[in-house]
Fold this sequence. Notes:
Blueprint: E1 9-10, H1 19-32, H2 40-53, E2 57-61, H3 64-74, E3 80-84, H4 89-96, E4 101-105, E5 127-132, H5 142-151, E6 155-159, E7 167-168, E8 171-172, E9 179-183, E10 196-200, H6 203-213, H7 234-265, E11 272-273, E12 287-290, H8 293-305, E13 308-309, H9 336-344, E14 345-348, H10 356-373
Parallel strand pairs: 1-13, 3-4, 3-5, 5-6, 6-9
Antiparallel strand pairs: 2-10, 7-8, 9-10, 11-12, 12-14
Helix pairs in contact: 1-7, 2-7, 3-4
The structure holds pyridoxal-5'-phosphate (PLP).
Pyridoxal-5'-phosphate binds near residues 63 and 159.
Amino acid sequence: MKPRLKKAFHVGKPNIPNKEKLLSKFSEVLENEWLTNNGPLVQEFEHKIKQYLGVKHCICVCNATIGLELLQRALDLQGEVIIPSFTFISTANSLRWQKIRPVFCDIKEDTHLIDTDLIEELITEKTSAILAVPIWGQPCNYPVLEKIAKKYSLKLIFDSAHAFGCKSGDVFIGGFGDAEVFSFHATKAFSSGEGGAITTNSDELAEKLRYMRNFGFDGFDKTVRLGTNAKMSEFAAAYGLVSIDELQSVINHNAEIYKGYIKQFSQFNEIEILKYSEHDYSNHQYAVAHVQANYRDNLVQHFHNNNILVRRYFYPGCHRLEPYKSDHSYNNTQLPNTENVASKVIVLPTGYQLDKKGMKKIFDVYASFLEQKK
Length: 374
Ligand SMILES: Cc1ncc(COP(=O)(O)O)c(C=O)c1O
């Protein structure tokens, strides 16, 4: 039986790389008879990522969520960490899982990035770090974040799950702050099925992370610190190695889709595509639109009825999801921009699934919604 979603256009549909190359890389794993535990393909993948991003160290992990947890432990974060609420729940949960309190900061309405003007007032004596998110692959305000982190002696880390292949000016995202964490989940423009990586320019941190991702082992019988199992398998690395060679083609394809959305939707007043800065470089994984909050959910339903699975990311904001929602200590959290943005965002499909015909279907379905709404 064909998978049910095959015919739908949906946000996050995988861009499967060349199947022959994939199968050949998978058979390399089998021939090596080395399936995990820092195998040759993981090492090759890490090397390739380091070179691609121009960063000193890359530590591949099983997914970004565990990568964030590992990093927080390696940096000995405690108490409170300031994060945006307009992000995927795992940014917040990676902290809470380790009994660190996420302190939610509001975002800028136009970019959806953490509002750096609001960070200082959230800093207390318990604050140990700022964990910012280059949301939709847009660079954060790195100079300001670095200045605040330095002023208060805080660690600065990034959940860069969306941002592989993106640049701030001419500089690849991956080397900012103490470290950054990428996701290579199936939904991402660059994927290894499941997977992720921590990148850093710190030798000491990288060494710690390598031990910690492998139970703390140094050799067969000796452990040097507390560790867990955060390893990437050889199959994931094989997938990632084939994907990385095709990344530019995925980015180019998505850049065309982005231009197409801007052009086509510009004829409608009621929808506005979030524009990426021309001074930076985007992987165009996400095509994000603002529509009116009062009919956003009906529009989403209309798209779904027509087999176009748009999404309401990151609705309703982490602070309004469990376990934070019923935690009374968050009762005073006021995040007007987060709530406003979460009520009006829709994310549109991108990726190889879409060609001109597919895009036309999306516009036609949108136009039919406007007709129906009259
Ligand atoms: C902002 C953000 N952080 C973290 C994650 C978690 O990534 P992973 O699925 O690799 O754990 C995601 C996944 O989509 C994400 O969007």
